[in-house]
Amino acid sequence: MNQLLPQWHFAERHERVLEGVTPAQAFAAIVPGLSADDPWIQRAIALREWPGRVLRSLGLSGNALPPQAFGFHSFTLLAQVPGQEVVFGLAGRFWQMDYGLCPVADAAAFAALTGQPRLLLNVSVEPLDKHRCRLITHTRVHCPTDAQRRRFAPYWYAIRPVSGLIRQRLLHRMARLAQAAAHP
């Protein structure tokens, strides 16, 4: 994560301790936990996208929404250290109704988008002992220009409480999956 986005302007961190779960079990639950459907998260995203749907239905904006609702599929896997961490990324103007997403094929493409705001979502496993570990999510956003930071800041502070709840739900789901693997 530090190699892909060494500088950032906005950050958020959440964690959850998993009892009776090995670090390997926790790591194995990361991607399934992120990619599983969650009706609460889908409703939060639908609420975020609601103004764009209204504008589109009124014929006021043809690009008010992305072609597909925002979700985990919008992120690109950029890197992973097996057993330790997974890093996903996005680039774009997130404050726009359609998120202003730029295609990101891989870590090299992410690094090359130096003129675009970039976001990293990292999930890591920290061993505490043989059957106890901590799952941690980090979200970092870098906006390369002052104008982009000024545009992003109000959006960040508006979505941050819901974003935090989403991260907590993701950690809870990962914990459930890891505990199910530990105690079949």
Can you offer a commentary on this structure?
The chain contains five helices and five strands. Strands 1-5-4-3-2 form a five-stranded antiparallel β-sheet. About 25% of the residues are buried. A hairpin with a 3-residue loop joins strand 2 and strand 3. It has one domain: Alpha-D-Glucose-1,6-Bisphosphate, Chain A, domain 4, CATH 3.30.530. The mean pLDDT is about 90. By secondary structure, it is an alpha+beta fold.
Descriptive terms for the model:
184 residues; alpha+beta; Alpha-D-Glucose-1,6-Bisphosphate, Chain A, domain 4; five-stranded antiparallel beta sheet; 5 strands
Please sum up the structure shown.
With 184 residues, the chain is an alpha+beta fold. It has five helices and five strands; from the N terminus they run E-H-H-H-E-E-H-E-E-H.
Strand order of the largest sheet: 1-5-4-3-2
Query: Structural class from helices and strands?
Result: alpha+beta
Helix content: 40-55%
- Rg calculated over all Cα atoms: 17 Å
Distance between the termini: 33 Å
CATH fold category name: Alpha-D-Glucose-1,6-Bisphosphate, Chain A, domain 4
Strand-residue proportion:
25-35%
Order of helices and strands: EHHHEEHEEH
Which blocks of ≥5 consecutive residues have pLDDT under 50? none
- Sheet having the most strands: 5 strands, antiparallel
How many distinct beta strands? 5
Give the SSE map.
Layout: E1 10-19, H1 23-28, H2 30-35, H3 39-57, E2 76-81, E3 85-91, H4 107-112, E4 118-129, E5 132-142, H5 146-182
Antiparallel strand pairs: 1-5, 2-3, 3-4, 4-5
